[in-house]
Specification:
The complex is a heterodimer of chains A (about 120) and B (about 110). Chain A is an all-beta fold. Chain A has no helices and 11 strands. With about 110 residues, chain B is mainly beta. Chain B is globular and about 40 Å long. Classes of the chains: A mainly beta (about 120), B mainly beta (about 110).
Chain lengths: ~120, ~110
């Protein structure tokens, strides 16, 4: 079974702090994704990566950056946390064959609260 | 990508088959149909996908009509743990990243 793990289930940070969210997958997947999910707004893509050291902006990259130094790990960084970044953050991974791009496996999510 | 339409909610008795419909009348020939579900406070879970043939895996069956304008996800023996929001997505497979877009979905309640 594919396993995607995220470093924290719940996180509380203060405004202005630098926040690191870590995601690790154990299926040797090429693609990794960071989404946030908010009530009424659905799932929104922040960044994705299709290879080590490669990254692409999603729909809402402002205020975030990412790092992918190893194939299995994809980190999301909030450079200076703000209250409007309070959300559920979801990491996902998928294989590199095209039809599998949308067969994504998600982690349990990190519920981040910025106060 | 084709717009998909699903009923907002459905009930199903435990042990019975749950049949979740999805309408995608504007689907194009190269769009796949994907199904996901999300149990409350958990990450989404991939269930199944198909192009035009019916598909079955250990979780569910996917029936796609011959004209591809609609599909049905079947959970053959629903359990209480199948209570979740189910999302139907139509996407063109491309090398442009793989962004998932969830609509409103169907909230399935499995009752004892």
């Amino acid at each position: 079974d594919v396993k995607v793990t995220q470093s924290s289930r719940y996180l509380v940070k203060r405004t202005g702090e630098k926040v690191f969210l870590e995601c690790v997958q154990d299926m040797d997947h090429e693609n990794m994704f960071w989404y946030r999910q908010d009530p009424g707004l659905g799932l929104r893509l922040i960044y994705f990566s299709y290879d080590v050291k490669m990254k692409e902006k999603g729909d809402i990259p402002e205020g975030y950056s990412v790092s992918r130094e190893k194939k299995e790990r994809f980190s999301l960084i909030l450079e200076s946390a703000s209250t409007n970044q309070t959300s559920m953050y979801l990491c996902a991974s998928s294989g590199g064959v095209l039809v599998l791009n949308y067969e994504q496996y998600f982690g349990p999510g990190t519920r981040l609260t910025v106060t | 990508d084709a717009k998909t339409t699903q009923p907002p909610s459905m009930d199903c008795a435990e042990g019975r088959a749950a049949n979740l419909p999805c309408n995608h009348s504007t689907i194009s020939g190269n769009e796949y149909v994907y199904w996901y579900r999300q149990i409350h406070s958990q990450g989404p879970q991939y269930i199944i996908h198909g192009l035009k043939n019916n598909e079955t895996n250990e979780m569910a069956s996917l029936i796609i009509t011959e004209d591809r304008k609609s599909s049905t996800l079947i959970l053959p023996h629903a359990t209480l743990r199948d209570t979740a929001v189910y999302y139907c997505i139509a996407r063109v497979v491309s090398n442009q990243g793989g962004k998932l877009i969830f609509g409103q979905g169907t909230e399935l309640s499995v009752k004892p």
